[in-house]
Amino acid sequence: CYLKCYEEGEHLYREGTLFEDGLMLYAFDNELKTIIFKAIQNVEIALRTRMAHYISMEQGAFWFMQEECFGNKANFYDNLERLKQELQRSHEDFIVEHWRKYDSPEMPPSWKTMEVASMGTLSKMYESLNTTNAKKDVAKSFSLPQYKFLESWNRSMTVLRNCLAHHARVWNRRFTLKPMLPQRLPGKWITNASQVKPHKLYAQLCVLAYMEHTVVSRCDFNTELKSLLARYPMVDVHAMGFPKGWEHEELWRD
Fold first, then answer.
1. At 243, phi and psi to the nearest 5?
2. What are the pLDDT digits (tens) for 32-79?
3. Secondary structure (DSSP) of 70-83
4. What angle, rounded to 10 degrees, do the helices at 19-59 and 201-215 form?
5. Where are the beta strands (DSSP E) in the chain?
6. Crossing angle (nearest 10°) for helices 201-215 and 221-231
7. Dihedral over Cα of 211, 213, 214, 216: its sign
8. Do residues 78 and 121 lie in contact, with contact meaning Cβ atoms separated by under 8 Å?
9. How far apart are CA 31 and CA 25, in angstroms?
């Protein structure tokens, strides 16, 4: 029996691996995805709320319908069409009630519309914005000194979320879209960012852990992740990009 491990983009096989080992990895991957999905949901909710707040404060409640707020005309109309489709699919009570009361403007204000926007739509809209001050304010609310970091992290989280939604394996996945890993950040961060492999899951987990600390008063992500790894000591954390001594980094301390 063999175990396919996909290390460094190649298909490697470990001879002598038992069928039970494969089932163990499947169970581990599923539990890991549950922990990751919960963290992404927290970040996604915060991103919706903070984009609606900060950009509306600067550009008004219907900024997402204003072409002048975006740097690329094609992206603007693409994002707007995507938002319209997401609104049409929504059965949320507050959206249904809105249409019952109002027929103008064409779409609800941002604090309602952003609530039904997908992570992918939010990411593309944020990146397309040319309202730099508002973008900076949103990034700072996540303790990020540059909005370019948030753009990068949004993109990588969208890809990771899509993997979860399609039930794809994530534990030792090689990601083609890599998040930016700053050397220093205002909050708890890692000291060896330059040595972290950005195409491995560990880089994504660092991003999630950092953002989780900025959106929830009690962050369970660290505890749940370390507990999961403790319950599956046979899993090769190196295949996920975890460096030696990772648990001693300030980011991962409870």
1. -80, 165
2. 999 999 999 999 999 999 999 999 999 999 999 999 999 989 999 999
3. BS-HHHHHHHHHHH
4. 50
5. 2-4, 13-15
6. 140
7. positive
8. no
9. 10
212, amino acid identity: E
Q: Please determine, for residue 174, whether its predicted confidence score (pLDDT) is greater than 60.
A: yes
- What average pLDDT does the chain have? 92
Residue 22 and residue 35: Cα distance in Å, rounded?
A: 20
Q: What is the pTM of this model?
A: 0.91
Residue 222 and residue 209: Cα distance in Å, rounded? Answer: 7
Q: What is the DSSP letter of 4?
A: E
Q: What is the pLDDT of residues 82-95, one digit of tens each?
A: 999 999 999 999 99
Q: How far is the C-alpha of 28 from the C-alpha of 31, rounded, in Å?
A: 5
Q: Taking a C-beta distance cutoff of 8 angstroms, is the pair 190, 184 a contact?
A: no
Q: How many CA atoms lie within 13 A of 232 on its CB side?
A: 21
How distant is the alpha carbon of residue 35 from its chain centre? 13
